[in-house]
Specification:
Length: 314
């Protein structure tokens, strides 16, 4: 197949895909209208039955019974009911015709529906073939296409790096949140200890501190990865300093001391402030990366549109 044949086949396949999509939209709309029409038909059928019963019931009444029920002559009332029945019958028949038309239209559309996946796969193959033909032709369109593909590859690499950085940043933020939970527990237990609640409060406080320290090592490792991801993006040098090492094991787990406990409380408060600051910094960077991702996706779409235009029109 030469380049002209490829282009002709590509345009034909595009047209076929669009036709199938249009048929699907029409089919969906017809189905929706049909569902509404069936509801209306059911409503008119009930009305028709009611008007018919009213008419027949009126015919069976005696003049005396009719006098007690309504004003006017029996013939007038029967004629009135007959007219109402006729109106209901016309509405029912009209809606029945609408349903029949929609059912017929639906059956025609069903026959025209085909699996669009096969056409889309064919189109994909034709686009690749046409792309290769243009690149090897060394024409102005081919050179422009080469440049677009080069820019697309670069944007895809950037997008992957951004996604990786966002993922690592979210992991770091989650780990820092755990640290804050443990430090807050330690802070609360420390307050209890200072109010003379005994060794159990002190033990719980230090258990929470130990958990915070353990989480800090994990957080530092993830933050290190996050810094590397940002460096790979050319985002400059970011440092995330978590100061928690000073919160070691304390002897007041066995010997309560008001002064030392007060100092420990201050250290816990400082650590909390530090971790809050680091977490806030991480979250702000993630927000910035998310914004960059949106811009990269937009650039990729523009490049893809430009590539499609060259492939289809050249």
């Amino acid at each position: 197949m030469n380049s002209k044949d490829t282009q002709t086949e590509l345009h034909k396949t595009l047209e076929e895909i669009q036709n199938v999509k249009n048929i699907r939209k029409h089919f969906a709309k017809t189905n929706s209208e049909l569902a509404k029409a069936y509801k209306e038909l059911e409503k008119f059928e009930k009305l028709l039955d009611k008007e018919y019963n009213d008419w027949k019931q009126l015919e069976s009444l005696s003049v005396k019974s009719l006098f007690h029920k309504v004003l006017g002559s029996k013939e007038e009332q029967i004629e009135k009911e007959r007219q109402e029945y006729l109106q209901a019958s016309l509405k029912f028949n009209g809606m029945k015709k609408t349903v029949d038309i929609l059912e017929y239209e639906k059956s025609l559309l069903e026959k025209k529906l085909v699996d669009v996946t096969l056409l889309e796969n064919k189109l994909k193959t034709l686009k690749k073939q046409r792309t290769q033909e243009l690149i090897t032709s060394n024409s102005p369109s081919g050179r422009e296409l080469k440049e677009i593909l080069k820019k697309t590859d670069r944007q895809i690499i950037i997008r992957n790096d951004l996604r990786r950085a966002v993922h690592t940043g979210l992991e770091a933020s989650k780990m820092l949140e755990r640290m804050l939970t443990f430090l807050q527990q330690a802070k609360n237990w420390g307050n209890w200890d200072m109010m003379g609640k005994g060794r159990m409060a002190s033990y719980n406080k230090h258990d929470a501190v130990d958990r915070a320290r353990e989480t800090a090592f994990k957080a530092k490792h993830i933050l290190s990865k996050f810094q590397q991801d940002l460096y790979n993006l050319g985002a400059g040098s970011f440092t995330f300093d978590i100061r928690i090492d000073s919160l070691g094991s304390f002897t007041d787990i066995f010997f309560d001391n008001l002064i030392s406990d007060w100092i420990i409380q201050q250290k816990i408060k400082n650590a909390l402030s530090n971790v809050y600051s680091v977490k806030d910094k991480v979250n702000r960077i993630i927000q910035s990366l998310d914004k960059d991702l949106v811009e990269v996706d937009q650039r990729l779409k523009e490049l893809e549109d430009a590539k499609e235009k060259i492939i289809i029109t050249s």
